[in-house]
Amino acid sequence: MASSPLTPRSSTPTTHGQTDRKASWTPQSRNPVSARLYKVLSTNFDDEETRQALRTLSDLYATPKGKEAQPVIEEPEDEFIQENVNPSHTAAGVAALLVETVPGESAARARKNLRRDMENQLAEGSKKFLEALGEVDLKLLQLQTHVGAMRASCDEAETQLALTNESSKLLLERAGTLRDQRQEVEDKKSIITLFLARFTLSESEVEAITSRDVPIGQRFFEAMDKTERIREDCRVLMSGEDGSTKAGLEIMASTSANLEQGYEKILRYCSNEFRRVGRDSQLEVSPGMREAVLRLRKRPELLTEALTSLSETRQTTLLSSFIAALTRGGPSGYPRPIELHAHDPMRYVGDMLAWVHQAIAAEREFLESLFGLKNDGRMVGSIRRFDAKGEEEEWIRELMDLAVGKLCVPLKMRVQQTIRSQESSIVSYKIANLLQFYLMTMRRTIGEEALLSTTLKEITDVAYKVFYDSIETQSQALSRIGLDDDDPSLTPPLAVLDHAQILREVMTVYQSSLLGDEREDEINSGFHQVLDIMVDPVVTMCVSNGEQKKKSRARWDEAVFVLNCLCYLQDVLGAFDFTVKKQSELQVIVDQRIALLTEEHSTNVLRDAGLLQVAETCKNHKIDEPLSRIPSTQPADLQRALHHFSIWLSGLEVVHSPRLAQLTVQRLHTKIHQDALKRLARTYQMICEEVKKPKNRYEAASTLLGSERPFGQVHLLWQVFGLEEEEENEGDDDDGDDEDESGQDDDSDDEDEDEQSVGKYKGKDEASASDGSESEEEESDDADDSDGPQRP
């Protein structure tokens, strides 16, 4: 069996040892098989072309191992070639491969016949190409024939087309001209369409404006807006250089007619709506009505006509509603009729005014919504400014005035009847203040010139007149009331107390009626007339009746009575700030009465102390005549007077005056009594100075004065009285400085010091009596601080 070229040959048997095998593979061996094998193994098959060549050979000589290869006939891929291939040719391309009987036999045969096989393959392939190209050439000849025929047809068609162009040139020109004319007509048509759409109304829009079947709504208002816009644009066109045109005049005429019909339709709509809405108690404004009123503002005469019907309807509705509220009440009897409360004048008048005020507020809200006015930012109850008057504000004020105009007559009649039927001045004043409050409110809401404001002003004047007549009658009746001669009390009489109580209630009502934004002078002047009418007669009555009772009862203290009455009036007025002026007038009278009472009390104190006659003699004696020679100031008489004065210092009258205890204001008691004690101290000082003068010729003047308390020591007397010693005055009691010092009042602590000073110079019995008087004085001071009225 032939050996394969890839199988190395072995020179020794396979049973030889390892040493022989190694020797056969040594490089020194010159075996050609080994050299060939080394060459094959060292060959690089990474080249792509080499691999492709080997792959081609493998495909050419591939055969199944150990079996006879079946003949494979390669069918040509092209159908044309397949149809023209000779069967004998295909048999030559079949390789009958036999099964290898010896390994490597096929490879040897392939190497031997490789060139021939390749040439046969190339020849067979070239033959196939030639056959295919022959067929292609035949087809190209046929194609060339067809192209020639087509070229001839095209030349003929081109010739016919040229002839046709020549013949249809005029027709194309005519068609182009018509096409241009058509485009021009289309442009004109679009322009005319746009012009008509902008400057004319469509049939539906004309129907919306003129037809009564189309209601007032968005469609109508859009048509009206378009009409207005057409007229504006038309005015712009007519204002050009060419001036007015026939089309412009026709457009203006047609739109003017349409607008007039539209405004007439709005007028009819508003009139009907106003009559319908005006009869309802709940006033609501629809957007359509608000827009219609806004449109009518461009036609003031039409708007006036529509609003006139509204005002007439509202007058009738408000009047009937007011009468129903007075007599029938609300729905189902609630709220109850106002006239059921006619027995209560304040509630009766207040309910009527409140109903009118509520009606005005509702009317104002309805009209503001109707004219589309927004909120002006004014707070509720604040003053409405009428200086910046707009057209809408004038319409609203006029309509409100007309709407409530018919309410003035029944309101005025009922309120005046209620006012004149009142007998109580307090109720009359409350009603007058209530009317004044609503008068100010209405003036701030609808203005001073409104009919309702004028009516309320008349009613308020009548109410105040009735009140002033009432209090004037009461004051005159007070002057005719006399005092009871058998009543020894010095307190204000019952008539004065009742009158003062009425005055207090009236002042309380006035204070509660203030709005808080008035000036101080307005507040004071607003009540000054009432004070003049009610206070002055009381003062006159107290003074005159006191003088009459003094004539019939000589021992009755008229000065204390008048002062108590005046202080009580001051106490009544002192609780109110707006009575300051009247309080000052009363204070002048009180000061005069205090001065008279102080003078009279000082004279009584000097008389009780036994120094009155001595003091008068010292003041009135002749300069050249010594006091020691005058009967009332002789040493014995002076000794008796000083002894009487010493005894008086030990009594309770030093710290407490029974007469002044009748004063209701204990502070006046203290003030007047201290002023009298100050005058007494200065009188004693004057007597001591006169006695010590050498010209009066008193022997042992110091002994005479020091025999009785206060031993000729004036400062000691000031301590006994509990007063601060004043600087030496050059004048006497008639200088008028006594009243000037009356403002330096002492506290209750001074009275305690007074009582302690008196206790130093008393015996045990007198000291105990002084202690009792001290406790009584403290109790009276406590009562004065807690209960006594305070003078402003």
UniProtKB/TrEMBL annotation:
Keywords: Golgi apparatus, Membrane, Protein transport, Transport
Region feature (Disordered): 1-33, 725-792
Lipid bilayer topology: Peripheral membrane protein
Function comment: Acts as component of the peripheral membrane COG complex that is involved in intra-Golgi protein trafficking. COG is located at the cis-Golgi, and regulates tethering of retrograde intra-Golgi vesicles and possibly a number of other membrane trafficking events.
Compositional bias per record (Acidic residues), positions renumbered to this chain: 725-756, 773-792
Protein's UniProt name: Conserved oligomeric Golgi complex subunit 6
Cellular component GO terms held in the UniProt record: Golgi membrane; Golgi transport complex
Annotated Low complexity bias: 1-15
Location relative to the cell: Golgi apparatus membrane
